[in-house]
């Protein structure tokens, strides 16, 4: 088994859908399937069971994948040891971010980061959900809750506040909102319940349990745009909405939801100069943006 075979085995074991594994490896699913069968033939064992849920490791595959992970870990430790003695921050960083944080605060500042560290390449994985650091889907990730297990380095990045918002056009054509009970009579925007990827996103339960949501999306950016367009009222992060003239904060003194962002880094890459550079940048940026994050 060569290094390419090792990467193939580990990526498919972590991404059972061949399309996902193929995207991470830069190939199409047909090529990945063909390479898997060739690898199984060369090893003389069946590595994966083909199911509706994707490619799942057989018992033999699990044993080989475990050994492959140890090889991968050793390679990363060697790279970390070499890089720890070199203060030049260079190479590629894969950073996982929540969609709202990425769009509102991080992506607009990446030009500044690139000027500071021109030798660092960056994969910015911004999505509705989390990429897994333990599964090596990212080197580091910003999450809504602190992980309790895994070979991880974790630190609180920042607290932040969410408030109720509506557009001026919506407020002009609907009854006034003077207290939280009035929300029962309004069109509310929020997350699709069975697609919520973290209990930290169930904001309305803290405002007034039992509220019915009329317009839902798993994307906070979609919720933000629907609110700006006058479709209804939403609970949005202050860092996304508060400085937007197209949105008006509602009941800011009584409806205030607080959450935290946690920075999670895999132990194996934590010492790398490029990881330290990104960590320092994120910490400094969050400190700089406290007035937007917290009010």
What does this structure look like?
With 295 residues, the chain is an alpha/beta fold. The protein folds into three domains: 3-84, Arc Repressor Mutant, subunit A (Orthogonal Bundle), CATH 1.10.10; 91-158 and 260-294, Periplasmic binding protein-like II (D-Maltodextrin-Binding Protein, domain 2), CATH 3.40.190.10; 160-258, D-Maltodextrin-Binding Protein, domain 2, CATH 3.40.190.10. Helix content is 40%, strand content 22%. It has twelve helices and eleven strands. The chain has helices at 3-14, 18-25, 29-43, 59-84, 99-106, 110-116, 168-172, 204-207, 220-228, 238-241, 273-288, 290-294, and strands at 48-51, 54-57, 91-98, 120-127, 140-143, 152-166, 188-190, 215-216, 233-237, 248-250, 257-266. Helix 8 (204-207) links the parallel strand 7 (188-190) and strand 8 (215-216). Helix 1 crosses helix 2 (18-25), helix 1 (3-14) crosses helix 4 and helix 2 (18-25) packs across helix 3 (29-43). The longest helix is centred in the first third of the chain and has 26 residues, at 59-84. The N and C termini lie far apart (55 Å).
Number of discrete helical segments: 12
CATH T-level topology of the largest domain: D-Maltodextrin-Binding Protein, domain 2
Mean pLDDT: 89
CATH homologous superfamily identity of the largest domain: Periplasmic binding protein-like II
Please give the CATH architecture of the largest domain: 3-Layer(aba) Sandwich
Could you name the ranges where pLDDT drops below 50 across 5 or more consecutive residues?
none
